[in-house]
Amino acid sequence: MENIFETIVSDTTQKKQVISLAKKLAKKCSLKSGKDLENLTDLCYWLYIYDQKDKARSICEIVDDVPFKNDFNVWTWVEVITALLMRILREQGDIEKVGEYRQRLMISYEEDAELLHEVLNGSPLFDQKIKDCIDEGDLKGADAWNFLQVSQLCLMRELGGSETYPIETLDKEIDRLKAVLCR
Q1: 80-89 confidence digits (pLDDT tens)
Q2: What are the sequence ranges of the domains in the chain?
């Protein structure tokens, strides 16, 4: 696992935030630590945003063996990493694997249909925070919220979308935010 992080650190073409995250993870990456999983999530999503899907996929697969144990300090991160992996697999045409990962993604919602409904209808989104930052002229703040928004939109998309947020709308918004964050 450490080799992939060291490879990213030594890649002189990488962006600063990618190298910083890879350095942290090369030093310590416990799949039981919420903070390490947050860093892993951020690294996966930045690689995806910068169109380095194969690297992002390799890192996403690190959490494959993390079981759901009702520990949402861990599972929340595993969930959004798994959603990104599903998106990458779909984009690469591996639909069979997407279905396998979808079963894994649904584990935490099996006994809480209301939570699934809330997620699919936008409860985890940061639209107001993004708008507030833009209104205040804080583009860095808006980008930070946009970055978090991408993971929530991926999760909603891979959980199946909803009438309020259909898959096509989610896909377009993810692509739009990727473009915004790459500027």
Answers
A1: 999 999 999 9
A2: 1-111, 113-183
